[in-house]
Amino acid sequence: MGQEELIRTVQELADREAIRQCVATYCRAVDRMDRELLLSVYHPDAVDDHGLFLADREDFADQAFAFHRERQYGHQHIITNHTCELDGEVAHTETYWMLAAMNKTGSPLSLSGGRYIDRFEKRDGQWAIAARLCVSDWHGQPGPSAVPPELRAILNAGGTPARDRSDPSYMRPLKVRTPEKAAG
Questions:
Q1: Per residue, what are the HEC states of 3-66?
Q2: Are strands 54-56 and 42-49 parallel, antiparallel or unpaired?
Q3: Of 33, 159, 176, 178, which is the most buried if we count CB atoms within 10 A?
Q4: Spatial CA neighbour of 8 closest among 84, 86, 83, 82
Q5: Residue 110 lies in a domain
Q6: Which contiguous run of DSSP H or E holds residue 183?
Q7: Which residue from 126, 124, 117 is spatially nearest to 84, judged by alpha carbons?
Q8: 37 near 163, Cβ under 8 Å?
Q9: Are strands 126-140 and 42-49 parallel, antiparallel or unpaired?
Q10: pLDDT tens profile 75-110
Q11: 3-state secondary structure (DSSP) of residue 172
C-alpha cells in the first residue's frame, strides 16, 4: 500500500468513525434529554422525519423530549447494525435501532425497533445529520420482569441513572465505589 492510498484509507476510516460516533451521540442525547448534545448531531438546517414528528433540529428536540417525558419514566435507544456509503463529503447510512421504554401508563415496558436512514454531510470538517428518516419496523411488550425491585436497587447501587446531566455517564473523572476487603 502506497503512501497516498494509506492516507485515503485512514481518512475514510476516520470519516466512518465520526459518523458512527454521531449516531451513538444522538442516542445518548435523547436518552439523557441533553438538548445541547442533541442539537450538535444535526446541521442547523437539518430535517428529521420521525413519523410522529417532522421538524428541524430545534423543534425535533422539543417534541422528542416532551414525548419521552410525558410517556416514560426512562428509555434507552440501542443501535446495532450500521452501514455507511461514503461519497466524498456526503454519506448515506442505515442504522438499526431498538428502543426499550419504561412507560408511565399501560404496559410497564415496551420495546420497538427500526432503522435510521440518514444523509450525513461533512461541512467545515464536521460530519452531522443533514436529513433523517426514522423507520419503525416492529413493536411489542415483553412479559413481566424477572428482576425483583430489591435486586434492581442493588444493581444500581454504584450509580443512579438520570435523564439529565446528573447521570453517571457525565462524571469526569469517573469515580466508582471501592470494594471492601473481606475480613480474613
A1: HHHHHHHHHHHHHHHHHHHHHHHHHHHHHHCCHHHHHHCEEEEEEEECCCCEEEHHHHHHHHHH
A2: antiparallel
A3: 33
A4: 86
A5: yes
A6: none
A7: 117
A8: no
A9: parallel
A10: 999 999 999 999 999 999 999 999 999 999 999 999
A11: coil
- At 77 the three-state DSSP class reads strand
Any idea what the CATH number is for the domain that residue 111 is in? 3.10.450.50
**C-alpha–C-alpha distance, residues 112 and 75, integer Å:** 11
Compute CA distances 173 → 32, 157, 168, 176, whole Å. 18, 19, 10, 10
In a domain, 49, yes or no: yes
The pLDDT assigned to 63 comes to 97
> How high is the pLDDT of residue 149?
83
Cα torsion through 103, 109, 115, 117, rounded to 10: 10
Amino acid at 39: L
| pLDDT for residue 18 | 98
Whether 162 is in a domain gets the answer no
Q: What residue type is assigned to position 26 of the chain? A: Y
User: Which residues span the domain enclosing 18?
Assistant: 3-145
Summarize pLDDT for 143-179 with one digit per residue, the tens.
777 788 888 888 888 888 899 999 999 999 998 888 8
The answer to whether residue 37 scores a pLDDT higher than 80 is yes
Residue 154 CB neighbour total at 10 angstroms: 11
- Residue 128 falls inside a structural domain: yes
In contact, 79 and 27? CB cutoff 8 Å: yes
* Amino acid sitting at position 28: R
